UniProtKB/TrEMBL annotation:
Residues 107-229 form the Methyltransferase domain. InterPro entries: Lys/N-term_MeTrsfase_sf, Methyltranfer_dom, SAM-dependent_MTases_sf. The keyword Phosphoprotein applies. The keyword Repressor does not apply. It comes from Davidia involucrata (Dove tree). Belongs to the methyltransferase superfamily. Keywords: Methyltransferase, Phosphoprotein, S-adenosyl-L-methionine, Transferase. This is EEF1A lysine methyltransferase 4.
Amino acid sequence: FFIFKTNMRSLPFPSNYFDPNKLGFYMCFECHGHPLRKKWVVEEPNDRQMDRNQNGNETKRTSVASPSTALAYLDPHYWNERFAREEHYEWFKDYSHFRHLIQHHVKPNSSVLELGCGNSQLCEELYKDGITEITCIDLSAVAVEKMQKRLLSKGYKEIKVLEADMLDLPFSNECFDVVIEKGTMDVLFVDGGDPWNPQPATVNKVMAMLQGVHRVLKPDGIFISITFGQPHFRRPLFSAPEFTWSIEWNTFGDGFHYFFYILKKGQRSSDSIGMKDNVNIAPISLFQDELENEDYIFRTNIDEMESQN
């Protein structure tokens, strides 16, 4: 088994589920849906809530408390209230962790659409790397207003921020070179049920999103999806017959891995491949700051919901 230390306040499950004297079972997303035997060791809360960037430097995390249930992520009111209080939060690591992947696929003169920008600094980091034709959208009017003010205060006047629904994109056909989403599609799966056989309503939402992305991409455009979703869950959706893109992927991350998908329009092949098709992921070794991170809580909340269906 694996031994972990965690903060009881951060656990996404009832505290009686974690008995330090018993072995528990948990469906690990990193191990292709196979349960791991883990022993959980509970320690006293630590008031020092910090994240580490790629250089190992500690930075204070500004996220508000995560919701008690993952279903809250589907509620627009939750996001408006959250963005009203929260200045910045990065889902799935910050740009520095996958910058090398972005630079390999996105040219400086590319027109980029970011789906579900929230209060992320992704668009700012892209701009600093010379990618200046950027449009960001979010369903939350609060997020859009605060993002617009933040960008203007920093001098990023060229970046457009619009209130829009990613399931009904208000753009003309074939108008973007690149579409990027980071954790946005994952929200659609919080009530998806069995990941091997998602509920029809969830599939319909995901397909509406993908159809919109495919439509607004130029004939040789690229869709980048940064997600928890493993290839055996995402490929059936990405590979729908109506789409003309090829599928590649890579991974990044430390304690647990995130997937970086590259879907290239106009290059569909019968055997789309992963850059790491047989992903060899090392045994999980999560530290306390990772367990307290909302990415992890978000993922485990979803797994808990799926296990109850």
